[in-house]
Amino acid sequence: MSRTDQELRNLLNSLTLEQKIGQLNMVGGSIYSEFNPTEQDDLIHRGLIGSMMYADPKTNNRLQRRNLELNPQAIPILFCSDVIHGADTNFPLPLAESCSWEPRLAERTAELSAKEASALGVRLTFAPMADLAYDARWGRNVEGAGEDPYLNSLFIAARVRGFQGSNRENIDEHHLGSTIKHFAAYSYVVGGKDYNSSLIDSRTLKIKVMRPYEAGIKAGALAVMPGFNDLDGIPCISNKTLLDDLLRKKWGFDGVIVSDYGSIRQNITQHYANNEEDTTKGALEAGTDIDMESRLYIKHLTNLIKEGRIAIETLDEAVFRVLKLKSRLGLFDSPFTDESREYSEIGTKEALDLAYESACKSIVLLKNQQLLPLQKPIKIALIGPYANTKDDLNGSWSAHRGFSKTQTILEGLSRHVTNLSYSMGIENEALLISEIQTAVNECDVIITAFGIENCLTGEAASLSKLQLSKKQTELFRHLRQFRKPIVALIMSGRPLVFNEIIEQADAVVMGWSLGTRTGDAIADTIFGINNPSGKLTMTFPRTAGQCPMIYNGYENCRPYQKNDYYTSTYRDVIEGPLFPFGYGISYNHYCYGIATLRNCQINIDENIVVNFEITNEGKYLGREIVQVYVTKIACQPLRPRLELVHFQIEHFKPHEKRTIQLTFPAKNLCYDDENNHGIYQLKIGPNSGDLQSIELEII
């Protein structure tokens, strides 16, 4: 049962200055940092550890017991971790899962991740990431839900609900507190290079970038993490306008603001602060409550308070928010973890089944020249470095303890066929050329498993080039010489450039980093048990030189025209993306009929109703994601040239023809505090590059 505010104020008033400051100190553990046991005991005894990063119930209970024994006025330690897409069972990376276009699915995987993580002693996760994907070179796109603010907002809210459950004020033992990060515009770093400054205009910040963060706050997230970046020359960690004026006062956020790892110290590195005292003062006064692993709060706040450079009321409010968080998480009543849960609630059939469902819905079919699904009996040559690996199929920020449970692609395909030969394909070339030739000569079809390793996705993994490795490209060329049908699997947590494979392979499957059930999901898709239905939530460029490349940018003054030299284009690459936002095909072809509006003129507070037919021209059960975009004909100031305003998932029987009705609020087209009246083009279709238009007026 959570404590009342008055009870928490009374507790706050009973603490010494040192104990108050300790509540704002988060220290590392486990994979995060080495920690001297003697120093640890000293800090615990003095009440100087408010939170720790550990995910092990026995260790957490031992530390908690030590904390409560050494200090009679002890406040329970809050244990935290990066639970991004699983704690033991690894679900698809968030970017991959967003290709399901199913926020409810993300809510369910977040909820099971919370269940497993809480069984490991974790009470707060540093997720979900609400940064919009902007530049494919940025490695941390894998943690979010793509480049669209509307879709992103739905996924962020869903993940918050999944992690935290239904009662924000009393989080039960099977759920976690969630953290919206990295506030704000961290993904707009210059050149897609991690830890860089962000370059963004105020309008884009308002109408696009802030929307997913605000959605997470409205969903009830208990914590927010400022980004490493700066906005308008002020580091987010010390940006009072951002953290206090906008987040707390305008949006009404009453939770905790926790720094990213060591980021308070980095104000000195950026030449924003003169010294440690200045950066400590600036961060706390801007609203940053918890110092993650710079240790500057416990080093300098005592003197800053005693010297009158920081008001004691500022410290007290930060400490109160931390106490409130611990109360909401039930730590005062239940500081320990039931260690038996580690064996009864982790890796359950429920979790594994959901991991399979999520993996299947995340797969995106990019090309298919009537090769897939494969028909049995068939002889397969499986070749490539990602065919029999486990670690890289999980992606960055994975739960390492779950790697041994991961199903490889080789294991998955072996369930379907016995006539299967395998070669890694890129090591010990003399041996492998002979091995490959034997395998390929005897096969009916080649399946290649190409991709990118974990260390090249995620934090600190920005890339200047997005191509597959040279060895993989050369291997593909070698395989083409055998003139056998090729199914190319791309196993990667991030968009890559693979133009040659798209042009020459018979089928291409974006397999992402799908987690624990990768093998079954890929194999069942190859053989048609799963009809792929995922749609991309990031634009795939043809070359990294096109980045940043997003579908919903502003229209320029000279849009590309093929026969006009003086238009916006690059002269050395085909204009446009390799694959547009929202793209993905299936084993069926869906034919869209002509769309009509119930009313062509409506008020802002009315619903838009669109009707049209869709025909499943294929012979398989299918799932189609119908997408609705908008372009405003004239707008001052400018709006993005295309914006997603609605989507709807429809399920079809073989050869079924059905009338589809889309109903959604006209407010989806509108911006706050702007003139939204005027003419709009509603654009409907299977992806952002294949749309039909109808005209609508908001009066």
**Tertiary shape:** globular
The structure class reads alpha/beta
Query: Rg, please?
Result: 26 Å
The fraction of residues assigned to DSSP E strands is 15-25%
Number of strands: 25
| The first-level CATH class name of the domain at 349-546 | Alpha Beta
CATH topology of the domain at 349-546: Rossmann fold
Sheet with the most strands: spatial strand order: 11-16-15-14-12-13
Number of helices: 21
CATH architecture of the domain at 349-546: 3-Layer(aba) Sandwich
From the N-terminal CA to the C-terminal CA, the straight-line distance is 51 Å
Keywords:
699 residues; alpha/beta; Rossmann fold; Immunoglobulin-like; six-stranded mixed beta sheet; five-stranded parallel beta sheet; 21 helices
Descriptive report:
This protein has 699 residues and is an alpha/beta fold. Helices cover 31% and strands 18% of the residues. Strand 7 and strand 8 form a beta hairpin. Helix 7 runs parallel beside helix 8 and helix 15 packs across helix 21.
Concise summary:
With 699 residues, the protein is an alpha/beta fold. The chain is built from 21 helices and 25 strands.
Summarize the SSE layout with pairings.
Layout (H helix, E strand, L loop, with lengths): L4 H10 L2 H6 L2 E3 L9 H9 L5 E3 L3 H14 L7 E4 L12 H5 L4 H17 L4 E2 L23 H16 L14 E5 L18 H17 L4 E4 L3 E2 L2 E2 L4 H11 L5 E2 L8 H4 L6 H11 L4 E2 L3 H11 L5 H17 L12 H4 L4 H14 L1 E5 L11 E4 L7 H4 L14 H6 L5 E4 L5 H13 L3 E7 L18 H11 L5 E6 L7 H6 L2 E4 L7 H9 L63 E3 L3 E2 L3 E2 L4 E10 L5 E11 L10 E10 L4 E9 L12 E10 L2 E9 L1
Parallel strand pairs: 1-2, 1-10, 2-3, 3-4, 5-6, 6-9, 12-13, 12-14, 14-15, 15-16, 19-25
Antiparallel strand pairs: 7-8, 11-16, 17-20, 18-20, 20-23, 21-22, 21-24, 24-25
Helix pairs in contact: 1-13, 6-7, 6-15, 7-8, 11-12, 15-21
